[in-house]
Specification:
The chain is 45% helix and 14% strand. The protein has helices at residues 15-29, 43-48, 57-62, 66-72, 101-104, 106-119, 138-146, 160-177, 197-210, 224-230, 241-258, and strands at residues 2-7, 33-37, 73-75, 82-85, 127-131, 149-154, 183-189. Strands 3-4-2-5-1-6-7 form a seven-stranded mixed sheet, sandwiched between helices. Helix 1 packs across helix 11 (241-258) and helix 6 runs parallel beside helix 7. The radius of gyration is 17 Å and the shape is globular.
């Protein structure tokens, strides 16, 4: 089971879009996936359109027992193959900036319970995607403690380099203090307008600063993102040219993230 934290320390760059795009690509590949919605805005949960549950992520962070996990995880509206550990606005109150190590480890403890379920032939997830909030509090740090890898999301804007640098430093800090197996998987540049000179300049600036960490391809700015999320459907099910372009980009990104062939 590969566990990937999808994060940005700046809001509005399309972090949830990347998490959902990877889930869509995994579904298309037949890789059973769990999306964990750590963002109190719960946009990933809304786009995945799950049925009501008896529990939420807030309950799991309070008590990461197997029965609590089972109450908070359900099949998404995308169908069999993508499940969701549903988010809750209540997690906002848990997002304190200086949590102790014990509280930081509760999400990891919950995912360890998932490993045990897998060992018994249940919930065979190949990929777990942790959709983080755009801040460095308990929720994002809990994801970094629980993850094998971190995917940093940015957009080609003026403060992109500084934002990625802060996120990269956060990953390295958690790696040094709490999670030696954590690795940075790279930087995803989202919402790129191919004919924009400004965007070309900012992408080049990111590549000059971070080198091979900047992943190819950059994700194009396409209306298919909003169409898929509005329809509560994976982008791979849309048939427009923009959706096909995005689907191909997410296929490549999934391969780079999981080490599998696109």
């Amino acid at each position: 089971m590969r566990t990937v934290a999808v994060l940005s320390l700046k809001g509005g760059v399309g972090k949830t879009t990347v998490a959902l795009g990877l889930a869509s690509a995994a579904l298309d590949r037949g890789l059973r996936t769990l999306v964990v919605d750590l963002d109190p805005q719960c946009n990933a949960t809304a786009a995945l359109d799950p049925p009501p549950t008896r529990g939420t992520l807030a309950d799991v962070l309070a008590s990461p027992r197997r029965s609590v996990l089972n109450a908070a995880i359900t099949r998404s509206g995308w169908g069999e193959g993508v499940d969701v550990l549903v988010g809750s606005e209540d997690t906002e109150s848990l997002n304190d900036p200086a949590p102790g190590s014990r509280r930081l480890g509760r999400l990891a403890a919950g995912l360890t319970e998932l490993h045990r379920l897998i060992d018994h032939g249940q919930l065979p997830y190949r990929l777990v995607l942790l959709d983080c909030p755009p801040s460095l509090g308990r929720l994002t740090r809990s994801a970094l403690v629980a993850a094998d890898g971190a995917l940093l999301v940015t957009e080609p804007a003026l403060f992109a380099v500084s934002g990625v640098q802060r996120a990269s430093e956060a990953v390295e800090a958690e790696r040094a203090e709490h999670n030696a197996r954590l690795r940075s998987l790279g930087v995803v540049v989202n919402r790129v307008k191919p004919r924009s000179k400004e965007h070309e300049f900012r992408v080049a600036e990111l590549r000059q600063t971070f080198g091979e960490l900047v992943l190819e391809p950059a994700l194009p700015d396409r209306v298919a993102v909003q169409q898929a999320q509005g329809a509560c459907a994976p982008v791979h099910r849309l048939r427009s040219p923009g959706a096909r372009e995005l689907a191909g980009a997410f296929d490549t990104l999934l391969a780079n993230t999981t080490g599998t062939s696109p």
